[in-house]
Design goal:
Length: about 425
């Protein structure tokens, strides 16, 4: 900041305007102090260190500080001048003012900028707090998405494989595990499927060969012995190989976990983006609350009652509604943007709860946890951005668009 003030004043000196006749200097320094509330004071001194203009410090204290600065030698370079000196409880930067830039050594005055150390520490603490809150919000959301991804890619296939092998140990070979890419786990699942198919094929071949032998033998006693041996073997193998193996839909709560986390976080960020608009017009706060609550409840009920054949379209509609709400908020339509975003967020939450209620036993806890994490992450992000409506709406738009591709395993059941 001292550099910018120095540059502006030296530009005036270069054009032949004396410091003591510079118009609007008090308004200029006052504007800088207002834009930088952490600044303790700003002072412009003349050639003999007389105060030409100052803001932020009483004249007596400023005179004492100027007297205390007289033992500080003139810096040899701009980099040295930018180093603060501690005087009278302030960290002070003193910059020379010259009449024609760097090539002229004659000093026509100084700029003093002082900052209290406590203000610097408070500013650093605020910035670290903002960074920590933002990082925590991102970490929470990424952790939820990572949990859903790990569950879908690793844990769910292993649980499915364990269930299939347990059924096979009891003689049930009627179920196959799902398709996967040709990675190590995918090869393991393919080997399990191949073993199930091989057992079924051997069983069918044995039964067919036994029937052929029985039909080819004319001795009734031998035919009865072959038939008895076939029946004993098939009974020993159990009914699990009687029908061809098939893949079954493997619905799991992690299918909806990532989708609901992104959609609800986007809706919450959009709602936070509408807060500054509601603050600007206090009488509109009841209308904001009522409209937002009705939209959220309507979306939630619509999602929970949506028929299964409409889930795909409803899931995409929810993400698009939140995205449209974010766009409306960016354009300044606070109320309509809030209604669209909360309706979309409620619809996404309702669809996810209905999905786990219909197809996944005990999966509601996963969806509710993802929803709670999304709300906490959105709140932390809003605090980190100091409730900046434009930045929050842009964040909501990004998350709502990311929720659309994440909905694919949610609306297309995997086997």
């Amino acid at each position: 900041m001292a550099d910018s003030v120095q540059a502006e004043l030296e530009r005036a000196l270069f054009h032949g305007i004396p410091l003591d006749r510079l118009p609007g200097l008090d308004e200029y320094l006052g504007g800088i102090a207002q834009r930088n509330p952490d600044t303790g004071f700003i002072a412009v001194l003349g050639e003999k260190d007389q105060v030409l203009q100052a803001v932020g410090l009483e004249p007596d204290r400023l005179a004492g500080l100027i007297h205390a600065m007289r033992d500080v030698a003139e810096p040899a370079s701009r980099a040295v001048a930018a180093r603060p000196v501690e005087r009278e409880g302030y960290l002070v930067v003193r910059m020379r003012l010259r009449d024609a830039g760097e090539t002229v050594s004659h000093t026509l005055g100084h700029v003093l900028v002082g900052v209290h150390p406590r203000a610097i520490r408070a500013q650093i603490l605020r910035e670290l707090t903002v960074v920590a809150l933002g990082a925590l919000a991102v970490t929470l959301l990424l952790a939820e998405m990572s949990a859903a991804l790990v569950s879908a890619i690793l844990l769910a296939p292993l649980r499915r494989l364990s269930a299939v092998m347990a059924s096979a140990a009891l003689g049930d070979f009627s179920t196959l595990v799902g398709r996967r890419p040709r990675d190590q786990l995918g090869r393991l699942l393919l080997a399990c499927n191949a073993a199930v198919f091989l057992m079924h094929d051997r069983r069918q071949r044995f039964a067919a060969h036994a029937d052929e032998v029985r039909s080819a033998v004319f001795d009734a006693e031998v035919a009865r012995a072959v038939e008895a041996a076939r029946d004993r073997t098939l009974d020993a193998l159990g009914p699990g190989l009687a029908t061809p193996p098939r893949r079954v839909v493997d619905a799991r709560a992690s299918d909806a976990q990532g989708y609901v986390a992104l959609a609800v976080a986007a809706a919450a960020l959009a709602a936070a983006a509408a807060v500054p608009a509601a603050r600007g017009v206090p009488e509109d706060v009841p209308a904001f609350l009522a409209a937002g609550g009705v939209a959220l409840l309507a979306g939630l009920l619509a999602g929970r009652s949506a028929p299964a054949r409409r889930v795909r379209g409803a899931a995409l509609l929810a993400g698009l509604a939140v995205a449209c709400g974010a766009v409306l908020l960016l354009r300044g339509a606070a109320l309509s943007g809030l209604v669209a975003a909360l309706a979309g967020g409620g619809l996404a939450a309702g669809l996810s709860l209905a999905y786990v209620r219909r197809q996944v036993r005990g999966g509601a806890g996963t969806v509710l946890r993802a929803t709670a994490v999304a709300l906490v992450a959105a709140l932390l992000w809003a605090v980190a951005l100091d409730w900046n409506g434009g930045e929050l709406a842009a964040s909501a738009l990004v998350l709502s668009l990311l929720a659309l591709p994440v909905a694919r395993p949610f609306v297309i059941p995997r086997s």
